């Protein structure tokens, strides 16, 4: 009679004991999600719901990244996450700061599409047209790509000598465009990238000169406000979009445009759809391609838009090392972001208050959301 062979107790149990004693401990379990964190994410966000909820929650709870006041994530045109900090909500208008530059860039694109401006022409600024004035060589393209050569020193030390501070709050505040346009050339036009808030105001002044060529303060303001509403806010379905104007009737196109988080999201979605809203072109597809094409003097900047590319300098605005290569963004002071990733059908809006010295940890948290989504 054949006897069945059974392993000894030691032979059966010892390998498991040895593995348990010598193996590396596994990662600790993640803590439970805070109350309400999951509710900020839709039931079907296109990725693991809990992972997205944790990534969103980190923007509001992580230390060392400042204060997030609103976060909106859209995937394939649908809001898949929306959350607000205490005291803020869907009806709150948020100042875009330098995200306003991207909005101004789109408005200029509408004027170019209508044939009222040309990219490689000198814009209609009378003070630059005097014989022998080297500023008469600056083109609209160079202004949009932040390579005008004008002496606009952003974030100078001390801060009260910065071009943006002088223009917005000191000697330029009553006629910001006149102040910005009066600055001399520091470099030959077109040769050096210099990020500049005054440039956004110059572009807004150019728009006003086209729309109200002989207008006074009130007619300039009215013409630009009507153009802004009819060519941008209304087609977007974004009634909260609202620009500020200076005492000379010039839109503060470098920094002072307001909108709710949802309307900033609609703006990002328009960019993701190459200038189209519900199939209708608000601005030509080629204009968005121009805005998101690297400029000749800054690989991480297009035209009034930041690109997810290595700058070749110490400047890091997005996440070029690990994030999607086609990502681009409108970026504003204190950590305002509208990040667009066409290959992932994704738009991320973050509004809040984060100082420059802790911007990198904030960007890392935004990257964590972007990298959850696969590319097409």
Set down the secondary structure blueprint.
Layout: H1 9-22, H2 49-61, E1 67-75, E2 78-84, E3 94-95, H3 99-113, H4 140-144, H5 163-169, H6 176-182, H7 197-211, H8 217-236, E4 242-243, E5 257-259, H9 261-272, E6 276-277, E7 280-281, H10 285-291, E8 306-307, E9 328-332, E10 336-341, E11 346-353, H11 359-370
Structure explained in plain terms:
The protein has a 6-stranded antiparallel beta sheet with strand order 2-1-11-10-9-8, with helices on both faces. The relative contact order is 0.15. The chain has helices spanning 9-22, 49-61, 99-113, 140-144, 163-169, 176-182, 197-211, 217-236, 261-272, 285-291, 359-370, and strands at 67-75, 78-84, 94-95, 242-243, 257-259, 276-277, 280-281, 306-307, 328-332, 336-341, 346-353. A hairpin with a 4-residue loop joins strand 10 and strand 11. The chain folds into 2 domains: 32-92 and 308-376, Beta-Lactamase (2-Layer Sandwich), CATH 3.30.450; 94-256, 3-Layer(aba) Sandwich (Beta-lactamase). The protein is α+β, with helices and mostly antiparallel strands. Helix 3 (99-113) runs parallel beside helix 7 and helix 7 (197-211) packs across helix 8 (217-236). 34% of the residues lie in helices and 13% in strands.
């Amino acid at each position: 009679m054949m006897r069945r062979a059974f392993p000894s107790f030691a032979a059966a149990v010892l390998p498991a004991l040895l593995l348990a004693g010598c193996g590396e401990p596994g990662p600790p379990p993640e803590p439970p999600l805070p109350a309400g964190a999951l509710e900020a994410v839709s039931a079907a966000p296109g990725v693991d719901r809990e992972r997205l909820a944790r990534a969103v929650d980190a923007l509001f709870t992580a230390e060392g990244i400042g204060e997030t006041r609103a976060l909106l994530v859209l995937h394939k045109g649908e809001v898949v996450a929306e959350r607000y900090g205490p005291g803020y909500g869907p009806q709150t208008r948020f100042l875009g700061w330098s995200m306003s530059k991207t909005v101004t860039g789109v408005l200029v694109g509408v004027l170019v599409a209508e044939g009222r401006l040309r990219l490689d022409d000198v814009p209609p600024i009378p003070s630059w047209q005097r014989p022998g004035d080297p500023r008469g060589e600056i083109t609209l393209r160079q202004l949009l790509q932040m390579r005008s050569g004008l002496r606009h020193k952003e974030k100078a030390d001390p801060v009260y000598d910065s071009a943006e501070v002088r223009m917005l709050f000191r000697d330029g505040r009553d006629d910001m465009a006149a102040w910005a346009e009066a600055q001399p050339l520091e470099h030959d036009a077109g040769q050096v990238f210099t990020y500049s808030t005054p440039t956004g105001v110059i572009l807004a002044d150019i728009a006003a000169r086209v729309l109200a060529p002989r207008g006074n303060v009130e007619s300039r303001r009215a013409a630009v406000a009507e153009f802004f509403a009819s060519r941008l806010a209304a087609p977007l379905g974004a009634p909260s979009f609202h620009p500020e104007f200076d005492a000379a009737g010039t839109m503060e196109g470098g920094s002072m445009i307001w909108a709710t988080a949802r309307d900033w999201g609609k703006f990002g979605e328009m960019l993701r759809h190459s200038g189209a809203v519900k199939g209708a072109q608000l601005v030509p597809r080629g204009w968005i391609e121009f805005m998101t094409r690297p400029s000749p003097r800054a690989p991480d900047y297009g035209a009034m838009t930041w690109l997810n590319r290595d700058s070749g300098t110490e400047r890091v605005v997005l996440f070029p090392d690990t994030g999607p290569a086609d990502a681009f963004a409108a970026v504003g002071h204190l950590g305002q972001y509208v990040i667009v990733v066409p290959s992932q059908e994704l738009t991320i809006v973050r509004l809040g208050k984060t100082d420059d010295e802790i911007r990198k940890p904030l960007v890392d948290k935004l990257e964590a959301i972007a990298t959850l989504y696969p590319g097409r």
